[in-house]
Amino acid sequence: MAPKTIIEKIWEQHIVHREEGKPDLLYIDLHLVHEVTSPQAFEGLRMNNRKVRRPDLTYATMDHNVPTINRHIINDPISKKQMTTLEQNCKEFGIELADINHPDQGIVHVIGPELGLTQPGKTIVCGDSHTSTHGAFGALSFGIGTSEVEHVLATQTLWQSRPKTLQIKVTGKLGFGVTAKDLILAVIAKYGVNAGTGYIMEYTGEAIRELSMEERMTVCNMSIEAGARAGLISPDEKTVEYLRGRRYAPQGEEFEKAAERWLALATDEGAEYDLTLEIAGEDIEPQVTWGTNPSMGSGISASVPNPEQFERQADRESVSRALDYMDLQAGTKLEDIPVDYVFIGSCTNSRLSDLRAAAEVAKGRQVQEGITAIVVPGSQTVKQAAEAEGLDKIFTEAGFEWRESGCSMCLAMNDDIVPSGKRCASTSNRNFEGRQGNGSKTHLVSPPMAAAAAVTGKFTDVRKLAKVHQ
Amino acid sequence: MEAINKFNGIVCPLNRVNVDTDQIIPKQFLKRIERQGFGQFLFHHWRFDDEGNKREDFVMNQMQYENAEILVAGENFGCGSSREHAPWALLDYGFRVVIAPSFADIFYNNCVKNGILAIRLTEEEVNGIMEKAQEPGYRLFINLKDQDITDRKGFTAEFDIDPYWKEMLLNGWDEIAVTLNLDEDIRSYEQKIGSGI
After folding, report:
1. B83 touches chain A (CB under 8 A)
2. Is residue B197 over pLDDT 50?
3. Which of A27, A39, A50 sits opposite B189 (nearest CB)?
4. Is the same domain home to A300 and A230?
5. Over the stretch A245-267, which tens digit does the pLDDT of each residue have?
6. Which of A396, B135, B150, B196 sits in a 20 to 30 Å window from A40, CA-based?
7. Which range of residues forms the domain containing residue A459?
8. Could you tell me the residue ranges of all domains in chain B?
9. Has this prediction a pTM greater than 0.95?
10. What is the ipTM for the molecules in this complex?
C-alpha cells in the first residue's frame, strides 16, 4: 500500500458519501459548541423542526462572553442573553453543558483535551477558528461557520472538499527561552498569513517531536493564523500518555487498543505532501509582533521595519497602515517599546505549563507601575491546578491580577478590554486592529515574554532576564 | 438561501489585503442571537469614528458607492475568525458578490452558505477592476451559470467555482435538506463505527 499522511488516513476513514464532482460528505466525531456562534444554528433547527442528530457527540461550554471577575454579575444584558440562550438550547436538545458554574468550564479548546474528548483520529469541529488546536493530538479539527454548525447538529456530517496537504517541517532544536509560541509566530512571520490557505498542515521535524502536548496545542492553535483551517501533529507516546486516565478517553483494556489504533495513524515513512515548508528551530528567537496581523512580527532583537523594504506594493501599503495604527516608527527597537497592559491567557497560551513559564519570570519581581497585568487561566481545572502549586500567589505578589477562566482579553467580548490607544503584550493569537478593544494595540508574545514585559515595562528579551535570575 | 445566477451591480473597491473578519464585523456586535440586522455594523471602525461620525475618507462612505452591491478587495479577504456574522453583515448591508484574488477558507464557505457569490479573479484583473471602479456608477455583470464577468467597456473574465457550490448557489438549496436525503448513508456509517464519544 502506498504510504499515506495522517491527513489522508483520517479523511478516508470518515467518508460517509462520495460522489464524482462533489465534495466528500465527512462524518464528524465531536462537535464542540459555545455561546457566540451557536444561537442562530439552534434557531434554524427549530424553524425547520429538526433535531440534533447526535447530542452524545456534542459538548457545550461558555467561554467567549463570561466575566473573569465577579463571576455572577454579568453587566451586559446581551452577553447574558447569549449565555441563557445556550443553556436553554442545550436543555431543549439534550446536550451536555459545562456552564459558568460548572467545575469543567473553560475555553472550549482547553477543556476538550483536558477532558479527553479530544482524541487522535477524530474529526472535530466547532464554530470557532481556533478549533485547529485539537490537531495537536492527531485529530482532524477545524473551525466552521454557524450554518455549518447547524448542518453538523442536524446531520453529524459536513461536505468538505478534499484539501491539499502542507508539511511544516521544523528542524533542529529550539534554543533556551524559545517557546512553542515563538516557533509558530516565526513560521507565520516567515511564510505569511495565507501560506496555508486551501491546505491542511502537518507539523513535523525534531523540534515538533520534542514539544509537550500543551506546547503542540499552542502550535496547532495558530494554524489558522497561517491560513490553514486545520493543522495537526502525528500522535506518539506523548499523545497516548496525555490521554491515559482522562474522563472521556477509553479506559482499561479499551485504552490500550485505542492507543494502538492512534499510533498507527501517524504519517507513513515516505508519504508525500503537496507542499513542504521548512524552518530551522535553532534560528528562532523569542518573537514580538509589531503590526496588525500575526505575520507582522520579528525576533526580539529586531527593530520595527521600514515599509519601503517590502517588495510588493500591497505589502508596503499594509505595513505602513499597520505602523500608523500601532503608532510605531520604523527603526524603533522592539526592546524599546513600552507596554500599558499585559494579558496572559487565551486558547493559545492559558494552560498550566504556560502559567508556570510566566510565573517563573514573574517570581520575585514586580509589575511596573502603571501597567495592568492580568492572568486568565484557560479553564477551572487549570486554575485549580495552578493554585494548588501556588502560581496564583506568585502572580498576585508580583502585582498581576488572578482571574477566572474564559476567553477574556483575547477578543474582549466581556469586560476585559484594552482601552483605546493603549498597548498590550498579549499571549493570544490575533493582533488585528481593535481586537482587544477599539483602538487597542496588540503585540503577540509568549507567556514568559509577556511576564518579562510586565516586570520591565517594555518588551525585553526574556533570555537576559532569566540569566539575571539564575 | 436565495438563489443567484445573473447579477449586476455597482462596484465598491476596497483596496486592502488581508481584510480580517474582526474588521468586517467587530466583536462587540457578535452578541445578537439573530442572523439579521448586522449590516449597520459592517466595517464599523473603518466607517465610523469614535463619536459615531462617518469617516469621509473611507471608500464605502463616498456617495458614489452608496448603492454598491459588489465588493472588490485585495488578497486573503475574510481571514481570521470563523464568525459567520461577517457574511451576514455583508449581505444585510447589500453586498451580494465579493471579488478578490483569494479568500480565507472558512469565510469562503460561509459566503456560499448564505448565497453570497465569492469570486476569485487574478490579482491583475482585480487591480483593473479597482481602477475602473473609481469612476462613478461602474458596474459589473456576473453570470454564474456561464462563470463569466463583464462590464460595459469590454472587460471580460472567466472564473472558477466548485461545481457543487455552483449548483447550490444557482438553486438556492437548503444544504441540510440535501444531506438528510442521504440519511441511509449516514446511518450505515454509524452502524459501522459503533458507539459515541
Report:
1. yes
2. no
3. A27
4. no
5. 999 999 999 999 999 999 999 99
6. B196
7. 287-464
8. 6-194
9. yes
10. 0.95
